[in-house]
Write a structure and sequence with these properties.
The complex is a heterodimer of chains A (about 160) and B (about 130). By secondary structure, chain A is of the alpha+beta class. Chain A is built from four helices and eight strands. In chain B, strand 4 and strand 5 form a beta hairpin. With about 130 residues, chain B is mostly beta strands. Classes of the chains: A alpha+beta (about 160), B mainly beta (about 130). Strand 1 of chain A pairs antiparallel with strand 6 of chain B.
């Protein structure tokens, strides 16, 4: 079981088997280009995608997201069904605006990461902690999904 | 170049050497004010004690260990956070007062303030 990030180029890679995919991708590109900003979905609006790790344990999932320099109040975690969404914004430090910049490599602006967790989780008991620029989210599994081993008697 | 020996000079913030390849190059912002150069480096996952900052021979080296971030059991379903740490070298010009460096670490961001030496600071000269 693995979670794979959506890649627009993946469909194009299967070129010989499905030529129609290319037409679909080009149409999608044109549609998204001419759409107004309000109609954009959350993912397209995100300025950067912070890196994350998801680990499955016996009774919980642990998600770690790199968010250096992001204030705790600027992060929002939403759990809907099995989909966990982390969104927020990193604001440029006030003291540095107007200064003479030599290089800007760090990411600023809005971000959003969203992923579906594979088995039933207990959404009401999610815990999140922020330490040294890494957000750690603990999502416990529901009691039903914990009972993985089912003994089957052979007659 | 003395006695035919080739002096290898690192270029401005070069890539880490082979032994240090497991280290990532941290993203950095560099800006200048009238009194100092300010460097901001993203070192997510590093504790304050795991960061080393050295100034030597016109180079500033930043190294941070984040291997504890990967010390988790269980099955990794998605793994995007790479490397066991961060490493980067910056070359520092002569106009820096190396005795006057201020560094602080907050929320995964290391901010280093390198103050300019008195003789390179812009100065307004009063005309009598």
């Amino acid at each position: 079981m693995s979670i794979v990030r959506w890649s627009p180029a993946r469909d194009l890679a299967t070129f010989p088997s499905d030529v129609l995919n290319i037409q679909r991708e080009i149409n999608r590109m044109f549609n998204s280009f001419f759409r107004s900003e309000q109609q954009e979905d959350g993912l397209a609006m995100a300025a950067w995608n912070p890196a994350l790790d998801i680990a499955e344990h016996d009774d919980e999932f642990i998600v770690k997201i790199e968010l250096p320099g992001v204030a705790k109040d600027e992060v929002k975690i939403v759990m809907q069904e099995n989909t966990l969404t982390v969104r927020g914004e990193k604001k440029q430090e006030k003291e540095s605006t107007g200064a003479n910049y030599h290089r800007v490599e760090r990411s600023y602006g809005a971000f959003q990461r969203s992923f579906t967790l594979p088995s039933t989780v207990n959404g009401s008991k999610i815990d999140a902690a922020f330490k040294d620029g890494v957000l750690t989210i603990t999502v416990p599994k529901s009691d039903e999904s914990k009972r993985k081993e089912i003994e089957v008697k052979v007659r | 170049m003395n006695n035919g020996e080739v002096v290898v000079r690192r270029e401005h913030d070069t890539q880490p050497s082979i032994a240090e390849r497991e280290f990532r190059v941290p993203a950095a912002d560099v800006y200048e004010t009238s009194e100092a150069y300010i460097l901001m480096l993203d070192l997510p996952g590093a504790t304050r004690d795991a960061i080393s900052l050295t100034l030597e021979m016109g180079e500033m080296r930043v190294k941070a260990d984040v291997s504890s971030l990967h010390n988790q059991e269980g099955t990794l379903l998605l793994s995007e956070i790479a490397g066991s740490g961060f490493f980067r070298v910056f070359s520092i010009g002569d106009g820096i007062d190396t005795g006057n460096v201020d560094a602080r670490y907050e929320q995964g961001v290391l901010t280093v303030k390198l103050f300019k030496s008195e003789n390179v600071k812009p100065r307004e000269i009063h005309i009598n």
